[in-house]
Amino acid sequence: MGLALAAEIDETRSSFETVKWSFGGIMLFSRSVLSSAWKWMKRPAGSSLSGGAVGPEGSSLLPKRSRVFTAVVLAVAALLLTLPEGREAIRTVSSSWRGYRESGWDQRMLDELAARAEKEGDASTLAFVALSTSDRAHGADLAERAVALDPQFMWVFAARNRGLDDDPPRAEWLARLQAADPGNAVPQLLAADAQVQARTETDLEHGVKIDKIRQRLESNSNWLALMDSAYAAPRYDSYFQRHFQLARTVWNREKSLPPTTVLYGIWQHGFPNMLTFRLYCDIKIQQSQTAQASGNTKRAESTLASLDMFGMRMAEANASDSDLEKLIGLAIARNANKAMTKLYQESGRPEDARRAAMRLEQIDEQSKEMRRAFNPSRSARAVALRKEATLVQGFGILVVIAGIAALSTILHARAVAGQGSKSEIFLAESDLLGSGLCPCNSTRCLRRISGELPTVSGRF
């Protein structure tokens, strides 16, 4: 390739054309190596290719191979494809290309898993499929069957995947869930959402302002009663941890499941509407301000205290591993303490105002820590991985630059030293003409080969 470049160097019109020719030669060389390797693999056992680096009469650089070598290579390739780890790696890569969205093949696997679980009476697997399938009607049926087999999976009614365009949970489901899990605020919150969800989503789609939505909710006495009951509940459990543990158990047991089926269900876990938390908090703060203005400071203080306690219960719930819920809880507690600080200051209670202000600072600091942990780009592990990726990319770029520099040096040395023979240049240029990678005119190359044009350094 170096001799061919030296023969054509006078015909290249610019440095870019020279570099283009060089890259074309590299591509040709790579194709030649791969082609030789493929021909070698197809040769009979114990034979090698004729020709090599020094010419057609030389020996091939590729060694002789045996039938044992061929069998080992095929066995290793088949093993990589048949091992569970290999199949899982292939499925993970293909799932990432689809954005971890379920495909028809994933849905068929879930249907087969549900059919087998129903035959075996496996309530946990039925619950898993109910939470993981994208078929809403089928998921609802599976949830009913799982609860019928084992009532401890009643929480699936609340956690089953629900998007913005899904129907709210059935009233019968919520009633059974409230009876099975008394003292939990989430069933009450879901029941409150069921009353206003459709209208609220319609208002948001039509661009209705938040203030008007809040005024409409404030006039809904049933919604307010359910929200009051939820905020007074002693526990907050959205069943996310149970969902996570169930998904991990089934995935560890069913090795053939693709990651899409697990991640889709986790991402679609049903949480209470976070917008209603904010609107209810605003309504209660406004009610406390109205009570304070009317002279009922005690009522105003108790209203804000109930908000603060619910927010901290939500933020400190051991059963919830959702950072989003914890951040929402801290935001509710922060707004309550901010309003309480103002209430104490205006009521002439400086000591209480100082304590509320200190609590507000603690909540702010905790919120900042949660946001830093919640942001994957700022986590210590993400920063470390980003540094390692930068180093790998940097070294890769250096290797490419070093390769180009080495190639340029070799080409320059060959051009200056005048090494090589007429036949070597003839073969190199013939290959380039056949591959279409030579940047010069084909007629000019043919004329040079035939001896009609002068050559570099009188070599050709």
Short summary of the structure?
This protein is mainly α and about 450 residues long. It has 21 helices and two strands. The protein has a two-stranded antiparallel sheet with strand order 1-2.
Percent range for helical residues? over 70%
Mean pLDDT: 75
What structural class should be given to the helix and strand makeup?
A: mainly alpha
User: How many distinct beta strands?
Assistant: 2
Q: Globular, elongated, flat, extended or rod-shaped: what is the shape?
A: extended
Order of helices and strands: HHEEHHHHHHHHHHHHHHHHHHH
Largest sheet: 2 strands, antiparallel
Name the features.
460 residues; 2 strands; extended
Write the layout of secondary structure elements.
Layout lengths: L1 H7 L6 H28 L7 E3 L2 E5 L7 H16 L1 H14 L6 H17 L2 H10 L3 H14 L6 H4 L11 H10 L4 H21 L4 H9 L2 H12 L7 H14 L5 H9 L6 H20 L3 H19 L7 H24 L3 H25 L5 H38 L4 H14 L6 H8 L11
Antiparallel strand pairs: 1-2
Tell me about this structure.
The protein has helices at 2-8, 15-42, 67-82, 84-97, 104-120, 123-132, 136-149, 156-159, 171-180, 185-205, 210-218, 221-232, 240-253, 259-267, 274-293, 297-315, 323-346, 350-374, 380-417, 422-435, 442-449, and strands at residues 50-52, 55-59. The protein is an all-alpha fold and 460 residues long. It is 72% helix and 2% strand. It is extended, with a radius of gyration of 36 Å. The longest helix is centred in the C-terminal third of the chain and has 38 residues, at 380-417. The relative contact order is 0.10. A hairpin with a 2-residue loop joins strand 1 (50-52) and strand 2. Helix 5 packs antiparallel against helix 6 (123-132), helix 6 (123-132) packs across helix 13 (240-253) and helix 13 (240-253) packs antiparallel against helix 14. A two-stranded antiparallel sheet has the order 1-2.
